[in-house]
Amino acid sequence: MRYGYAGTILRIDLDSGAIQKQPLPEALADKFIGGRGFVAKTLFDELLPDIQPFDPENRFIMATGPLSGHLLPASGKTHFGAKSPANGGYADSNMGGHFGPQLKYAGYDMLILTGRASAPSLIVIEDASVQIRSAEAYWGQGAIVAETQLKRDLGDDYQILTIGPAGEKLVRYACISHDFGRQAGRTGIGAVLGSKLVKAIAIKGTGSLPVHDVEAAYRAGKEAYAKVTQKPGFKEWVPEGTAGITDFINEVGVFPTRNFQSSYSEHHKAINGKAILKELKITDKGCYGCPTPCGKYGHAKTKSGEAFVEGPEFETIALFGGNCLLPTISDVAYANYLCDELGVDTISAGVVISWAIECYEKGILGREEIGREIAFGELETVEYLLAKIAAREGIGHLLAEGVKAAAEKTGQGSDRFAIHVKGLEWSGYECRNSPSMMLAYMTADIGAHHARAWVVGHDLAGSWSDVNEMIASAGEGPRELPEAVVKPECADYVIESQHVRPLFDALGICRLQFMELGFEPENYEKLFHCITGQKRTWEELLAVSERIWTLTRAISLKEVPGFGRAWDFPPERFSTEPITSGPNKGRLLSREKLERLLDWYYRARGWDAEGRPTRETYARMGLADEAHVLSAMGLCRPEAG
Amino acid sequence: MELRVIHERCSGCGTCRLTCALENFREVNPAKALLRIRGRFPAPGDYRIDLCDQCGECAEICPVEAITQLNGAYRVDTEACINCMVCVDACPKGVVMTPHQDEEPAICTACGACAAICPREAIITAPSHTLQKEAG
Ligand code: SF4
Ligand code: SF4
Question: What's the ipTM?
Fold first, then answer.
C-alpha cells in the first residue's frame, strides 16, 4: 500500500463503456508525485501528434496529489489535463473546491477519460461503483443550473462538476464548474469534456485514506492550522480574498486596462475588494480544508439582471473591470455570473471581448459582422458577446475560437493587439514595466498564465515580504516607478517561481498559505512525511517540480509541429505601443529585450536556442526514456560543441 | 463541553468533519464525521452547521433505552442497541450518524475537536449559561 494516495487509477473508455481500475504504479508516484505530474506523464506517454484536441483519442485527465484530502491547510486542489484546445500542446487547469478529495475518498488518485460517448452522458461514481448514465435531461443547461439539479437528483453529499453550454459547443476556452463558483478555467478543458459528450461527473466517496502515521499526521495537521491562523497577514488576506490586491496592482501600473492599451484604471476603487464587501458579499466561501477562504459569495444587482455569484476574484476584476472597463463591481460580478453559467473562463472571455471591442473601434470588425454596436465599459456589450460565443452564433463563431485564431482570421493587423501567448489569452498583469513577469508569461507551459510564476514583486522590489508591505500600503494613488531593469536575474526569478508554485499542483494542495502567508516549507516536509511515510526535503520536491516542468515543455514540442522559440513571444503591442496612461505611461519592452530575456532563460534551463531541452538536460531530470522518444522524432539533440 | 455554532462565520471548508473522523475514529474519512456542513447554493448562498445540541430526542425515542447522557453528551450503548435506526430518523438536526454502516449509530461526543480546529471560530466552546442566553 502506498500511504497518502488512494492507490488506484480509474479509466473510463466512453467508446466502449469499459471501466478499468489499475493499481497506482509506484514509479509514477515516486517520480512525478501526483496532480500535475501525473497529468504530464500520462499525456507524454499517451498522446500522439496527429490527435486533435477534440478527437475521441484525446485524454481528459483529472488527478489529485498525495496530500489531497488530508488534514492540512487547503488540501482541496485537483488538476485537469488534456491536449490543449488553445494550442494543441500541453494543457492543464487547476481547480479548488471539494471534488478532488472526494475522488480520493472514493478510492481513486486519477481519472482518465478516453473516447466519446454516443449520447450526452453523466458519470456517477460512488466508491467502487462507476456508472455512465444519460445526461439528456441536463444537456443545454447552464453549469450552475445543472449542478443544482444534479444535487437534487443524486443527493447533496455528491460533489459535482459540470460544463455549461459553451463546453457543449466546444468554445476553446470553456471551463469546468464545481461547487457553484469554482472553476478549472484555463485552456478550454471544459470543451474537451464537451467533445466527449460528458455533461457532468458526480462523485461520492466514503472510504478512508491510508496514512503512514495517523497519530503524527493528526498532530501535525492540527499544528498546521494553529500556525497558519497565527500568521501575520492571515487577518488581512481573508476579508477581501484575491480582490484585495486590486488597488496595489493598479497603483504600480500593471493592471490590464482597455485591452492592455493601458495598465492603470481610474475607476479601480469602484471595482476593488472593498467594493465587494460593500455591494455584494453574503459569505466567505472556501475550498476543502482551507483556513483562508478566498471565495466571496454574493449577490449582484445590475440593469441587466441580478444573480447569486461567487467572486469576482482578482483575475475577473482585472479582465472585466480593467480590460473591458466595466464601471462597477456589480457589473463585473454579473459578467462573472454569466461566464460561470455559460461555462467560459472569465480570463479568456475578458481578453477576447476586449479585443473585439478594439477591433470595432478601429473599424476592423463592423456593426454588420458583430450584429450591434459594442463598447468598452458597457455590460450589455459583454452580455451580448458572451451569449453569442457560448452559442457559437454569428460573431460568436469567430470569437469562440480564442483571440489568436480570431485575429488570424480577421487579419488587418488585429494580431498586434490579440493578447495571448501560445494561443492562451493573457491573465491579469500588464508587463511592459515588469520584465520578469513578462518572461513568466512568455514561458508558462500552458500559455499566458500568471499562476506558474508570479514575479511582479521581483521587478518592483526584489522580495516577497516587501510586496506584502506594499500591498498593505496601497490606496495612495499611482506611484512614482523607476524603469524596471532587464537583467539575467529575471530568468532566475522566473525559473525559481516556476518550480515552487507548480509543486503545489503536484502535491494536490493550495499554495496560498505558502506564497501569501509565508507558511514555511518545513511544515510541508513534515506533513508529507507523516502522511506518505517518505522523507523528502523541500529541495528534493522542487527537483521533481523541475522534472515536471521539463516534461510539459517536451509534450508541446512533441505534439505541436514547429513548436519552439517563436511560440514564446507576447503580442507585438507590448514591444511597439507604449502604455497610454498611469505610472508606467510611455513604457514598452523592445523585441530585442524580449529576445535577450529568452536567451537567458533557455540557457539557465539547459535548453537550446530554439527552446528545446538538450539530451543532457533530459538526462539530468531523469527523463532519459522520454529523450529517446524525442530524439527519434528529431526533437532532442545533445548540447552543441 | 458545551458547543455553540455561528453559521454566518462558516466558509464550508469541512475541516471540522475531517477532524471529527480523526479524533473519534483515527481515520482520514469525513464520511464518518458526527456533524454536517450544508452549503445552501446558489440561494440563499450560505452555510449551515448541523451539530448535536443535546436535545435528547434520540434518547427519548430509543425503544431499548440504549441512548443515555453521560458527562454532557449522549452515548449509544453498543451492547443494548438493536440497530433499528429510529433515532437516526428522529434527530431533528439529522446528526445521529451511521459511521459503521448498518451497525449501531453514533452521536457527537462533545469532544470539542471541531471547535478547536475551526479556523473561522464558527464552532466555539461556551459555558452552558451563555449557550442558553445567546440561543434566545
Ligand atoms: S471548520 Fe468551521 S468554517 Fe470550516 S466547515 Fe467546519 S464550521 Fe465551517
Ligand atoms: S464535538 Fe467532537 S464528536 Fe462532536 S462534532 Fe465536534 S469533533 Fe465531532
Answer: 0.95
